[in-house]
Design brief:
Layout (H helix, E strand, L loop, with lengths): L6 E6 L6 H8 L4 E8 L2 E6 L21 E6 L2 H4 L4 E6 L9 E5 H6 L7 E5 L7 E11 L17 E5 H7 L6 E8 L5 H9 L8 E5 L4 E3 L1 H36 L1 H9 L4 H32 L12 H27 L3 H8 L1
Helix pairs in contact: 6-9, 7-10, 8-9
């Protein structure tokens, strides 16, 4: 039995996935089944009497150039497990021959029933292929397709068996996607790691983790991570310089005040502490406000972010970095005046 969500998808764009590649991945311990998807094809459909079948459409009218999307699958139950629901008939299976599945809306629109004969014609193909309607399905997820052309609508997806797709394809495009199913969801990470170690050209292929439906491309993730690291470093450096220059200007404007405090016997450490407290009060308020606002936005259902709260470890690290930068800015901006005698300060200002 295949656990829900325990699968990885193997994509090849624009290259073809060969049987050799499939066999290599299938040999990984823990994979118990797989289902493949043939290259996308477009074709015209007609009934047993040769009458063209009508495509579903919303705001955009159907033109003579619009065609149904022919999609070959080796096992529709496995490959489309969570995206469609069978309402009549049976799924496309590995042993299916000249069989097709259509959407329930397409079937109603053309008065189709299980067992009806359909004829599929693809551009550039010399002969038509007759298939038997073996299944009728409906989409389980709601997607706004009102602005799509008829050829792009999922209601016009026609799923056929692998042999029929191969026979309709005059360019021999082959398999472009494969789903591999594992015994348990917690094996996905291990199997993914083993797959990456295989002797394959990873410039041609991608792995998708079906558990979170996100692309897992180590090189791409690493590149993006490096870019964010550089960007973060630039932002931190720019912020540090701006704050330092502002504090230097502020300290210069308070030169007489510093000179008076020094002449009255105030220690340099005490004056520096006063400057630190003056800066830390608004900085602390800003950090606290940023934390609570960020935590509220992340937790808000409007943004639909999976993280529920900002991790405390990350928060403490951010606060520590900010405090260190502020301390350095204050020291740099005050160091020159604090190491000058009161007499020299007054003489320079006069």
């Amino acid at each position: 039995m295949i656990a829900e969500g325990s699968s990885i998808s193997f994509l090849s764009v624009p290259y073809v996935i060969t049987d050799e590649v499939i066999e290599k991945i299938k040999s990984i311990h823990g994979i118990n089944a797989y289902a493949s998807h043939y290259a996308f094809l477009s074709g015209m459909l007609s009934d047993k009497n040769g009458n063209p079948l009508e495509l579903a459409a919303y705001n955009i009218p159907v033109s003579k150039d619009d065609a149904a999307s022919i999609r070959g699958v080796s096992d529709s139950d496995l490959y489309l497990d969570s995206t469609i629901k069978l309402t009549a008939g049976r799924h496309i299976m590995p042993d299916s021959k000249r069989e097709a599945m259509v959407n329930v809306q397409f079937a109603k629109q053309n008065d189709l029933n299980i067992g009806d004969k359909l004829t599929i014609t693809t551009p550039g193909h010399t002969s038509d292929i007759e298939v038997t309607l073996s299944g009728i399905y409906e989409n389980t997820d709601n997607v706004d397709e009102t602005e799509f052309s008829p050829s792009e609508l999922r209601e016009n997806y026609i799923y056929v068996d692998y042999g029929t797709a191969h026979a309709l394809d005059n360019r021999n495009q082959g398999i472009i996607s494969v789903k591999f199913f594992v015994d348990l969801p917690d094996q996905l990470a291990s199997i993914y790691a083993q797959a990456q170690k295989l002797d394959l050209d990873w410039n041609k292929y991608y792995l998708f983790d079906e558990a979170d439906a996100s692309v897992i491309d180590a090189d791409a993730v690493k590149a993006v991570s490096n870019q964010f690291s550089v960007l973060t470093a630039v932002i931190i450096l720019a912020g540090f310089l701006v704050i330092t220059f502002v504090l230097m200007l502020q300290t210069k404007m308070r030169a007489n005040e510093i000179g008076i405090l020094l002449s009255l016997g105030f220690t340099k450490s005490r004056i520096l502490l006063q400057h630190i407290i003056e800066v830390m009060i608004p900085a602390g308020i800003s950090i606290a406000a940023a934390y609570f606002i960020g935590d509220h936005l992340i937790s808000s259902e409007r943004f639909k972010i999976t993280v529920t709260h900002i991790q405390m470890v990350t928060t403490l690290q951010i606060i520590a970095i900010n405090l260190c930068l502020l301390m350095a800015s204050i020291w740099i901006s005050s160091a020159r005046l604090l190491h000058t005698t009161p007499k020299a300060i007054f003489e320079k200002n006069n």
